[in-house]
Design brief:
Number of helices: 12
Distance between the termini: 12 Å
Helix content: over 70%
Largest sheet: none
CATH architecture: Up-down Bundle
Number of domains: 1
Order of helices and strands: HHHHHHHHHHHH
Length: 312
């Protein structure tokens, strides 16, 4: 009997054996990243920086459409009944996170498309004149541009929160059963988005601004992790067992080394030195942040699937 229980436990904690594979963590990461893109680009659009082709509001909406489509494709691959995905749009279930997500994504695409029409890359402008006509009409009304920026910020925040609510709404898994998960995923998405801007921008002002913003997000993310862990440890035994999967259990090494260490603390130190002119800006720090954000989703999703309300 004891041997059977040990075998069963080993099977449950084997990272290869999961109900959800790589698709859901990738979907959650890309959704959070796009949410961060929408908030950042929406803010710059609101402030009128869309007139400069080196600012985030110019290129992030276009990148967001591609990233979100990749995330949706990953989610589609995970669906068991792919031919019936259209049924999500024949009803709205207020208590279903999946129903909320389906309709939120339906609103996100038009908002992103509107933001792309505010500033069109020259490569598209010279070839597809239909875009130019819409862009000219939008730019005739400055108030409309500001409203597009606000719309993207609001929907970006909702999308980022949804990536956490999708898991926390599944109460059968104690590790996911936390009200901190939505704000943790939203902050992580903002951090990854700011890191992406820091990584790809060619403008010095925007590089410094994105690094400072990312530092603030990383510090806040550390605080959220502390609150998340304390909340779990002070809750039921099932919650305590769930959080120990990432604190001291099979996922502890990945969590402490790659999510907290190289995903938050080390890039935070590097970027603090960079913005204070102690060292030059380096792509290493933002790459670490983005990688840490991706691994965070894998750790939470995989560990959550083997957390249970009853002892094995």
């Amino acid at each position: 009997m004891e041997e059977l229980t040990t075998t069963r436990m080993n099977e449950m904690i084997d990272p290869i054996l999961h109900i959800w594979g790589w698709e859901i963590p990738v979907y959650l990461f890309l959704g959070g990243l796009v949410a961060g893109f929408m908030i950042i680009s929406g803010y710059f659009t609101l402030k009128g920086h869309h007139k400069h082709d080196y600012f985030s509001s110019f290129y992030l909406p276009h990148v967001s459409l591609a990233m979100l489509s990749l995330g949706m494709f990953a989610l589609f691959l995970d669906l068991e009944h792919k031919l019936y995905v259209w049924r999500l749009y024949t009803t709205f279930q207020i208590t279903s996170p999946m129903s909320w997500g389906a309709w939120i994504l339906l609103l996100v695409y038009p908002a992103l498309l509107l933001n792309t029409l505010v500033s069109i890359p020259e490569a598209f402008s010279n070839r597809i004149h239909l875009f130019d006509k819409f862009s000219e009409k939008i730019n005739r009304h400055p108030y409309l541009i500001k409203n597009i920026g606000i719309l993207n910020m609001i929907l970006g925040a909702v999308l980022g929160m949804y990536t956490g609510v999708l898991l926390s709404g599944l109460g059968a898994r104690p590790l996911w059963n936390s009200s901190m998960l939505w704000i943790l995923f939203l902050t992580s998405g903002l951090s990854a988005a700011a890191a992406f801007v820091h990584l790809v921008t060619t403008d010095h002002i925007e590089r410094v601004l994105s690094a400072k913003a990312d530092n603030a997000f990383l510090i806040f993310e550390l605080l959220l992790f502390a609150l998340f862990i304390v909340g779990m440890l002070s809750s039921t035994e099932a919650h305590q067992n769930g959080i120990h999967l990432i604190l001291t259990g099979p996922y502890a090494a990945v969590f402490w080394v790659f999510v907290i260490g190289t995903g938050i603390i080390i890039p935070l130190i590097i970027q603090l030195l960079a913005v204070n002119h102690k060292i030059n800006h380096t792509p290493i720090a933002p790459i670490m942040v983005i990688t840490g954000g991706l691994l965070l989703r894998f750790v939470i999703v995989y560990a959550g699937q083997i957390s249970h309300w009853t002892r094995l």
